[in-house]
Amino acid sequence: MSPKALAYLGDAVYELYVRHYFLMPPRRIQTYHQQVVARVRAEAQADYLDQLLPYLTDTEQEILRRGRNTSVSSSRRVAPEIYQQATGFETLVGYLYLTDPARLVVLLSQLNF
Predict the structure, then answer these.
(1) Is 18 left (phi over 0), alpha (psi -120 to 50) or beta?
(2) How many C-beta atoms lie closer than 10 Å to residue 74's C-beta?
(3) What CATH number did the domain enclosing 88 receive?
(4) Is 47 a catalytic residue?
(5) Three-state DSSP class for 77?
């Protein structure tokens, strides 16, 4: 699967993980939305990637590199380097979701929300 396809999948998987994380205790929908958006934006993903780097295997680092390098377009509101980091993060999430979901859970549990 291409890194772009993995990033596309990883974006959805990661957002679902974050939504699930903040679902309890019950809150207003607007509060959920604010908490989720703050953690799925490119800047936050780049920060979370920095937290995960020490835990990544060589294979995971290679997937991350491929994801960063495939990112050719960027958002107008985010620096290209941040966008590349976020795309790499999403690529890694998509890859692990398909190949090793247990490892994905372990890595995502390392994030400091």
Answers:
(1) alpha
(2) 16
(3) 1.10.1520.10
(4) no
(5) coil
Q: Does 113 fall in a domain?
A: no
Q: Which two tokens stand for residue 35?
A: 């908490």
Residue 27 has pLDDT above 90, yes or no: no
* 74 inside domain: yes
| Residue-wise burial string across 32-55, b where 16 or more C-beta atoms lie within 10 A, e elsewhere | eeebbeebbbbebbbbbbeebeee
The three-class DSSP label of residue 76 is coil
Percentage with pLDDT > 70 across the chain: 96
Q: Return the pLDDT at 74.
A: 61
* Burial of 98: CB neighbours in 10 Å, binned 0-12, 13-18, 19+: middle
